[in-house]
Amino acid sequence: MAKCPEQHDEKNPNCLYANPDDCCSFYQCANGKPYLMKCPEGLQWNSKQLWCDWPENSDCGVDGKSADHKVEEHKTNNNPPDSEHDSEHDSEHDSEHDSEPDGEPDGEPEGEPDEHDGEHESETQ
Predict the structure, then answer these.
(1) pTM here?
(2) One cellular component GO annotation, for this chain's record (predicted)?
(3) In what order do the strands lie in the sheet containing 16-18?
């Protein structure tokens, strides 16, 4: 059975490691178990940056195998989640990003007066 590092690596807090047999995949350790993850098509694992990167930026070996070996393979079920869950997640994700960092919704400038400001004051005087 495959093993992940026993000690937490401060330089690699997400526990991401190269696959020694394939430049286009990597392992992510969770609860002490390594899970094989695939890079998007056309990208290769970059062990220095700890992400999938363009081949010219990756540190993959000439033979297509990674020079970095830290874990053994532990295969998982890579079936996609059900579509109902995905659409709920996507709408939640989209709504989180519909506002500016200051919390104001997109398209409403901060600090500009409302077009009705001041009208009520003249009516009450």
Answers:
(1) 0.47
(2) extracellular region
(3) 16-18, 25-30, 33-38
